[in-house]
Amino acid sequence: MPPRRRELLGSALCGTAALAAPALVHSRAAAARVLVVGGGFGGATAARYLRRIAPQLQVTLIEPARRFYTCPFSNLYLAGLRSWESLGHDYDGLRAAGVEVIHERAEDVDAAARTLRLAGGQLLRWDRLVLSPGIDLRWNALDGYDAAAAELAPHAWKAGAQTLLLRRQMQAMRDGGTFVMVIPDNPFRCPPGPYERAAMVAHYFKRYKPRSKILLLDAKENFSKKALFLQGWKALYGEMIEWLGLSRDGQAVRVDAQALEVETVFGARHRADVLNVIPPQKAGFIAERAGVTDGSGWAPVKGENFESQRVAGIHVLGDASFAGPMPKSGFAANNQGKLAAAAIAAELAGLEPPTASYANTCYSLIGPGYGISVAGVYRAQQGRLIDMPHSVGISPLDADAAFRAAEASHGAAWYAAISADIWDR
């Protein structure tokens, strides 16, 4: 690995390690109650680390699913490189850490009264509220694409039934068919995700349906790790993947799910055998109910602690937040959960909050033994997050096969480590 590359990745990982070290807050913290909504990368991390940092806090996690399936690595499931159950995590480890877990949907927030209402009618009081609800989809933001259409042309952008449906459609597709993916403009969950998915679908097709094609209709001209993806697609899959960006009329404006057809801005129509539509997105439902979202549909936050800019006492983590240059990724949400936990514990104890510094590393798999990554470090400045100077590290284009294999291995190790850190005992 080139020296500069090692330095940049090392900075990102050190930032995470620093947040992982528990700065224990014991007797000075009041026995306050913190409610955490959402048991994914951000929420489950915050709940676990709140208990670790300030064990006397009452920490309750609200999450409808009894088993959480991750979007990270779900593309590998589509390729046949991971089992479905390898993506699932339960909450026994958090219970063992002293977190109360309630499997119910959060329905409403009264910020003035500091209460949260559950779907069953139960009213929970909170001293601090952490929202990490992930995303909701903007139905009909793309003409013709609603919840019913998603049953014919799945988005698979929330891991679960949609992911299983897309895999079944891929398996049933004829050899020589066309897989069409619609990709939205920024911001959206996991910026490199669609392009990794294209590679994983291509891996599956190369093995089982080698005459098939993949067409990507993209509302953007540029995307995360673009040069690396284009290089990797070409090296492993030849001409199987075609990407049409904004300047090549790649922006979809209408979907006919019954006909499996997409229309673009300038009237081109593309027919699919399998149609994967990733629509525009927004913060999960409860964020809107809490009043923390703005006109963008996302929740602007303070860079120092991810507290809402709109409602005091509520912190918003992960994909639901708008955090400037920090992307919507699992790594970022985990990082945010640790910092927010430390900040909340310090505030409740009347102590100085920690210095806000964050990191993100995103691994993508283009094929077995062929990985790429990007890393960044961020800090708070006057309430906002900014990139640390010279902190962005990206896999070099001229890397050899051993480097690509190491990146693939690092990605798998990251998933195992972060899963253990968040959910496992």
TrEMBL record:
Signal peptide: 1-20
InterPro entries: FAD/NAD-bd_sf (IPR036188), FAD/NAD-binding_dom (IPR023753), FAD/NAD-linked_Rdtase_dimer_sf (IPR016156), FCSD_central (IPR049386), FlavoCytC_S_DH_flav-bd (IPR015323), FlavoCytC_S_DH_flav-bd_sf (IPR037092), SQRD (IPR052541), TAT_signal (IPR006311)
Record-annotated FAD/NAD(P)-binding domain positions: 33-138
Protein name, UniProt field: FCSD flavin-binding domain-containing protein
Record keywords: FAD, Flavoprotein, Signal
PROSITE patterns, alphabetized: TAT
Organism lineage: Bacteria, Pseudomonadati, Pseudomonadota, Betaproteobacteria, Burkholderiales
Pfam families the UniProt entry points to: FCSD-flav_bind (PF09242), FCSD_central (PF21706), Pyr_redox_2 (PF07992)
